[in-house]
Amino acid sequence: MSLNDYNVLLLIIKCGISVALSIHQSNNPFIIVAQGKDMEENITRIGVSLPKNLLKEFDSIIKTRGYSSRSEAIRDAIRNYIMEYKWLEKEEGEIVGVVYIIYDHTVKGVSDAIIDLQHEFLDVITTTMHVHLSKDYCLEIILVRGDMKAVKRLVDKATTIKGVMNVKLVTAVKG
Q1: Is the domain of 36 the same as that of 115?
Q2: Per DSSP, what are the bridge partners of residue 20?
């Protein structure tokens, strides 16, 4: 299928990041992002498939927060992700913190995988709490204390479990 088969809306904003939203005949949206300081520069394009409900929720947040475009919101989201990642990479030594894991317990094997993960990281996990958020979603709250490298490994492994929607580490204090 060629790009001509899609109905493409290309938005270009001042900073040089463009976002194109395409909706195919089956109404499966995806985003193409092109970035560069000047649109005449070498441009990198990526394609991202998004479920309709995720795009709808994202658009709602964009409107509520007052973004002028999806491009601006996507740029902020990517910046925040990079900032958080770099901050976590700089942390080292003994820490105390909380790992939050939100997951869809209806996904086969996800609950067992999270329990196995907790057993694998007994050396840094001090306490866990399980909260039922809805019929399908659960929250695992894991208190951690120990070496940041081990905690990062825990977070990285949790992120890759199928059915896990979100993983967040908040460091409370240095040990």
Answers
A1: no
A2: 10, 32
